[in-house]
Design a protein that fits this description.
single chain, alpha+beta, Ribosomal Protein S5, domain 2, Alpha-Beta Plaits, 2 domains, four-stranded antiparallel beta sheet, 9 helices, 11 strands, binds (R)-mevalonate
Length: 314
């Protein structure tokens, strides 16, 4: 048992980090190509306090998240030579089922909360690096794009492991998000692509490179708010993801129905196999597109993008 000393201004601190949506470039980003991710206004909250107990305590509605919180605490204590025990309590605006990135948000928010609680000054870059290390330890794979979104917020041009983390603009994008009703198994799909990559290297390299060209064009178009072009690039990206073998009939249907109803473009968002699709839509067409997605059995998730990164909550 270690005495509780007043280490910082806080005895208890609450912080939050945003969820994310991949706009373009999933899977290709795992192979060193860029992607574009945007942070969403659904947040994950972490409260941290020092406790007079032998063991740390995690109170979380989602078992999966408790591993991320526990590993983050262990890494933080090891890095900053902290002996006290802490209690971490999490809750969120979204379920871990929809694929908005609850694990990465919990990880980032836990590091931020602990740094404030123990009066350790750590930069966003350090929070990203520590969180990415936790992510790799638990999952063994991943580009870290979700961690960048949770840390920095906004819409980011991102390269694996944070080789590039570049904010693109602060505009709200006119998005419609549809949940397919199926929880995607991200590690399964990342491995599936890796296996196909081994078997058909040159074909896969061609597809991943083609995705990266779309990302570069979308980066330019986003900067000038040319959403029509970004939409077209997203649909092209979806078709390439289909060629990678990660889409499903349901996601394809949601995407085609959205574009038929007048969306500028649409695609699955994330690893594939389920989770969400995302459409870029003019205000005049929004309701039509939402209805069309609902008619395919999709559930509209009300989110807006370009949310703030990890922050203190009152
Ligand atoms: C999963 O949401 C996105 C992937 O690119 C994996 C990753 O970047 O970590 C498939």
């Amino acid at each position: 048992m270690w005495p509780i000393t007043t280490i910082s201004n806080y005895m208890k601190i609450k912080v939050s980090a945003p969820g994310k949506l991949m706009l373009l470039g999933e899977h290709a980003v795992v192979y060193g190509y860029p992607c574009i991710v945007t942070a969403v206004d659904k947040r994950l909250y972490v409260q941290a306090e020092i406790i007079n107990e032998e063991e740390d305590e995690i109170i979380t509605p989602q078992v999966k998240e408790s591993r991320f919180a526990l590993e983050s605490i262990a890494k933080f204590k090891e890095n900053y030579k902290i002996k006290n025990s802490v209690r971490i309590t999490t809750n969120g605006d979204f379920s871990h089922n929809v694929g908005l990135g609850s694990s990465s948000a919990v990880t980032v928010a836990t590091f931020k909360a602990l740094s404030l609680l123990f009066g350790v000054s750590i930069s966003d870059r350090k929070i990203f690096d520590l969180s990415y290390a936790v992510n790799l330890k638990i999952q063994g794979l991943g580009s870290g794009f979700d961690i960048a979104a949770a840390t920095y917020g906004q819409t980011l041009y991102f390269i694996r492991a944070g080789k590039a983390i570049e904010p693109l603009n602060n505009e709200l994008l006119p998005i419609v998000v549809g949940y397919s009703g199926i929880k995607a198994d991200t590690p399964y799909y990342v491995r599936k692509v890796a296996e196909t990559f081994k078997a058909k290297k040159s074909e896969m390299e061609r597809i991943l490179k083609a995705i990266s060209y779309l990302v570069e064009q979308a980066k330019t178009s986003l900067k000038v708010k040319d959403f029509k072009t970004v939409g077209r690039l997203m649909t092209e990206n979806h078709n390439l993801l289909k060629n990678l073998g990660v889409s499903t009939d349901k996601l394809d249907k949601m995407v085609t129905t959205a574009t038929s109803a007048g969306a500028w473009g649409a695609k699955l968002s994330g690893a594939g196999g389920g989770d969400c699709m995302i459409a870029l839509v003019s205000e005049g067409r929004r309701r039509l597109v939402e209805k069309a997605i609902e008619n395919t059995g999709g559930e509209i998730i009300n989110v807006s993008n370009n949310a703030e990164g990890v922050r203190i909550e009152k």
